[in-house]
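Hi! If you just cloned this repository, the fastest way to understand the data is to look at a raw example. We've pasted two of them here, unedited. The first protein comes first, obviously.
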Amino acid sequence: MSINSIYFIIFVAVTCILYFIFPKKARWVVLLVSSYIYYALASSKLIVFILTTTLTIYLAALVLGKIEENTKNRCKTIDDKTMKKEIKHKAKTKKKWVIAITVLINFGILAFLKYYNFIAGNLNSLFELLHFGVEIPFKKLILPIGISYYTLQAVSYVIDVY
């Protein structure tokens, strides 16, 4: 769906109407579903990337919250300060791993979409220069609109949760 088509204008109008019909607490659902629909209509392959980002960010935030909750509950039952420090240190390490994995997945998606063909072309040139019989195929990737912004916002959210 092109952004200068009548279908896009109708889509935006319907989204706006639904947004203002829904209660304030549920408006985010309208925007999320509209985003999924738009990406699915633009290219059904793109929906995988936005769903992966949404799922990883959501799960990471849940895991970070659970780690924090477990840490507080464990620290309440312990009087020893060194033991509390050790528990908090382990929790902090776990949270850093969650953040690192989430950032790698999401920036990996972004890097793949933006730079796969560039890297493949350069590697093919290098392989040709070195007379290797290997050729990396090019992919017809369509870069989703605003993927960089969306990815950075999503990652910043999970870092805020941290």
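Ok, and the second one:
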Amino acid sequence: MADYHLHVERIKRSSGRSAVAAAAYRAGEMLKDDYYGEVHDYSKKAVVKSGIFLPPYAPARLQDRETLWNE
């Protein structure tokens, strides 16, 4: 029987971290952070699969990962 493990970590701006940078790393993409004005490029990282799951009532513009995390 397999065991399940969940690890939750807060990404706090006060400690100098960026949610956009974390999203770029986890998705293996290049995202621009509007708040800090930085570009986080993790496109060379091998990622098997990434996706965005939104409820049906969410605006279509949030399908774009950069828009989603900057908002």
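That's it. A detail worth noticing about the second one: The radius of gyration is 14 Å.
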